[in-house]
Write a structure and sequence with these properties.
single chain, 812 residues, mainly beta, 8-stranded mixed beta sheet, 8 helices, 9% helix
Length: 812
């Protein structure tokens, strides 16, 4: 397998790689400079001791770099073989990679060179570089059909249209031999070059029949053998004689008026040399021609265009007579002349009147009707263009838009409200133009809903919603009706609850029960009819937003975290998203961010910081449940660290170590409690669940056994963020209630959130589980997949709305 990599700077660099070695190719031009690269940097930061350059066909160095021991790269000794490069070479040791620069290149410098690099400790490294020196061609000449060299200054010719044409282009010198190509301007027309017996390269350009396409372009002969230096180029042009290509009578924009003097011009082009122009007038088909004197004549600088002018005073009898302008090339044979004719006439500007079709009543035009306009024009000569305008702008009729133009009529099918406005027609002839008086089109249409208005309203029971319905109609709606869409049909809403204005209505609606929420419809009625599609408004119970979903760590560094969530339903109101970052070890609040989108970038965190992250949404009705995730910043920024997506409840060695230390401290003080609970569980064949024992009571008992108090637990909870402390005090106020629920936790932290119900999450301590060897606290997920009896799994699915707990004991 071989591949090539090439770069073009002042010279061309290419790398040819194979399974055995790499050869770096450097291409340059004779007389220019080449840079031969050699990478001397060691992967182990080893010092360079000696650099030697060899030519492939020579066993002795042609250039060397010798660093003195301990002197570094600054103390160096450079040496160049006089018979090789001599003073033309210089080694740039500090470039990356290092470069051996060779100036004033010669053809004999081509070859393969080896760079040997010796290090103080590392093995010797060899780099191979192939230098290709191109010798450009020396001379280039163009030879005509008679063997004479043609210079760039004079065109070849003259030739007649249809004659053959042949020239030869010859290039001498160059290694490798150059390519010789013919171009017409910038288009390649001949690339068939060959080497002749003298070692030169030649290309013959042959044109079988000369045409107008060959007159004017420049023909370039280009010789080149590389893409670095400027190629050699010779340029020629061809001189060809042509008869006139065209002739035309020039006239003023205004018509000819009898008795008034006019200047009439005639122009001829395409003749080489310039054409001769003569004027004639012919009174009738049965009479001869009358010559007209030429007042002035001029020829363009390139000789291609000839222009003449005459003075002419028409009379009434000249009406419909013919004036002729004739052009010819005097150097060519007869029969090459061409003529242009003009028939005299008297013109006047168009007179235009626009009328609506007789079957159309402009005062009773409704959407969906068909109508047509007629443009009545009087002009001499006839008009050459009729333009239809709508509100002053040119109208481009199209059948796809319901507009059809037929002769001097404009048809509009199934007229729409957008077609209302001012219509006019404008006619043109050579004398001038005129626009008709605008015809006003006023289209009436049935009511329709304005699409840009608010369509969803969120309110609470007993709260008044003010719903605005805006109607677009012509004429304005006479009546606006409101309906409530229910399963039994549409129920009309009394008009007393709405206020109608010009084209709009404001409904004051107060839902008192859940049945009063739903879809509200708004209809408008005017002279044309009733609204076809109602305005549909959705009235929903406004509440707290849903919690953000799928929260995860999208990116992390040693000091920042990227947290991304999916937004839940906003509860019918505009919502905001909040993120709180707490220290895992002491629940200290580290960051608090609020923004409109659930995508957060938390900065300023310490490295290796374990944190809890709480994300929730809020609107005017309150805040949602919180989504908890746990993560840790990186120890340091670097390459190769995978992104982590830590969810709340995942164990790690750090949190487990803290729990084990805490358990070992309180283990002796809890021994009596453990034994009593174990004996009670052994006496029961199924899990024993102490009813009515709240989490707070269990924790109180634990702290009293260790000499602690409820206050110590309260103080530890109060050190958490304010939201968690509030949950704790709320639970304390519920002690003594009969309703209970399951206490479940399997997370590796000091506290976690669990789904006690679909609407609540509880913060609990896991320490109780770790300190009880014969008891275990189950999460609902663990109960579903645990190997314990169904009674335990059923018990684990208990729910409660009073945030108290069942403490489940299980004999292994």
């Amino acid at each position: 397998m071989r591949f090539h990599l090439c770069l073009l700077f002042y010279q061309v660099y290419c790398t040819i790689s194979s399974a055995d070695n790499d050869v770096f190719i450097v291409s340059s031009i004779e007389g220019e400079q080449a840079r031969l690269p050699c990478d001397i940097h060691s992967r182990k930061n080893d010092s360079v001791y000696l650099v030697l350059w060899y030519r492939k066909d020579s066993g002795t160095p042609i250039y060397s770099y010798d660093s003195r021991p301990g002197g570094g790269l600054q103390d160096r000794s450079l040496w160049s073989e006089p018979k090789a490069f001599g003073s033309r070479a210089y080694y740039h040791i500090n470039s990356n990679p290092s470069m051996l620069a060779v100036s004033d290149l010669k053809g004999v410098d081509s070859g393969t060179y080896t760079c040997r690099v010796d290090y103080t400790q590392s093995p010797t490294v060899y780099h191979h570089v192939r230098l290709d020196v191109t010798v450009p061609p020396v001379t280039l000449m163009i030879i005509g059909d008679r063997g004479r060299e043609i210079t760039d200054n004079n065109p070849i010719g003259p030739f007649k249209e249809g004659d053959p044409f042949t020239v030869l282009c010859v290039a001498t010198g160059g290694e490798p031999p150059p390519s010789v190509l013919w171009y017409m301007d910038d288009q390649l027309i001949d690339k068939t070059y060959i080497a002749n017996e003298k070692g030169a390269v030649q290309n013959t350009l042959t044109i079988q029949r000369l045409s107008r396409a060959n007159m004017g372009p420049l023909y370039h002969c280009i010789a080149s053998n590389n893409n670095i230096s400027e190629p050699l180029m010779k340029t020629i042009s061809i001189d060809i004689m042509f008869p006139p290509l065209g002739v035309r009578i020039l006239s003023e924009d205004s018509p000819l008026v009898a008795g008034k003097e006019y200047s009439l011009g005639c122009i001829s082009w395409g003749s080489l040399p310039a054409a001769d122009i003569s004027w004639y007038r012919k009174p009738s088909a049965y009479m001869g021609i009358i010559p007209l004197p030429v007042e002035s004549s001029s020829v363009s600088s390139d000789g291609n265009i000839t222009e003449t002018w005459i003075r002419y005073i028409p009379s009434p009898e000249h009406h419909r007579q013919t004036i002729t302008c004739r052009a010819s090339n005097y150097k060519l044979m007869s029969g090459n002349s061409i003529e242009d004719h003009r028939t005299l006439d008297v013109f006047f500007a168009p007179r235009v009147e626009l009328k609506l079709g007789p079957a159309v009543n402009p005062k009773d035009l409704e959407e969906g009707d068909d109508l047509y306009f007629e443009c009545h024009v009087k002009a001499h000569p006839p008009v050459y263009k009729i333009v239809w305008k709508y509100n002053g702008r040119e109208l481009y009729p199209g059948q796809d838009q319901g507009r059809i133009v037929f002769n001097q009529s404009l048809v509009i099918q199934k007229v729409r409200k957008e077609d209302s406005g001012n219509y006019s027609c404008q006619a043109y002839n050579v004398e001038g133009q005129q626009e008709s008086v605008p015809e006003v089109l006023d289209v009436m249409y049935a009511p329709r809903c304005v699409s840009t208005q608010k369509m969803i309203y969120g309110v609470s029971e007993g709260e008044t919603a003010y719903i605005s319905c805006m109607i677009d109609a012509k004429p304005k709606p006479d009546q606006i009706l409101w309906y409530m869409n229910t399963t039994s049909g549409n129920r009309i809403i009394p008009g007393a609850m709405s206020t109608n204005m010009a084209g709009a209505s404001l409904l004051s609606y107060r839902p008192t029960t859940q049945m009063d929420f739903g879809t509200i419809l708004c209809f408008g009625v005017n002279l044309v009819g009733r609204q076809h599609q109602p305005c549909v408004f959705h009235l929903i119970p406004a509440g707290v937003p849903e919690k953000p979903d799928y929260c995860h760590i999208a990116n992390k560094t040693s000091s920042a975290l990227r947290v991304v969530c999916d937004a839940g339903f906003n509860g019918g109101l505009q919502q905001s998203f909040h993120l709180e970052v707490m220290d895992f070890s002491n629940s200290q609040l580290l960051a608090n961010i609020t923004q409109d989108l659930p995508s957060f970038w938390v900065e300023g965190l310490p490295p290796s910081q374990a944190v809890y992250i709480r994300i929730y949404a809020s609107n005017l009705k309150g805040r949602s449940k919180a989504e908890m995730i746990r993560s840790q910043t990186l120890a340091y920024d670097g390459v190769g660290f995978p992104l982590q997506n830590d969810k709340d409840g995942d164990d790690d060695s750090f949190s487990l170590l803290i729990v084990l230390i805490f358990v070992s401290v309180i283990l002796f003080s809890l021994t009596g409690i453990v034994i009593s609970v174990v004996l009670r569980c052994l006496a029961s064949p199924s899990p024993v669940c102490t009813q009515g024992t709240s989490l707070q009571q269990s924790i109180n008992f634990q702290f009293q056994s260790t000499g602690g108090t409820n206050d110590s637990y309260s103080q530890s909870r109060e050190r958490e963020k304010p939201g968690q402390s509030d949950i704790y005090h709320q639970r304390r106020s519920m002690r003594g209630k009969d309703d209970t629920t399951s206490l479940c936790s399997s997370d590796s932290s000091g506290f976690s959130e669990i789904n006690n119900s679909d609407s609540d999450k509880q913060l609990v301590y896991r320490n109780l589980r770790e300190s009880t060897q014969d008891h275990k606290l189950f999460s609902p997920q663990e109960l579903h997949r645990s190997p314990y009896p169904a009674e335990v799994r059923t018990l684990g699915r208990g729910r409660s709305s009073l945030n108290q707990y069942k403490y489940c004991s299980l004999q292994r």
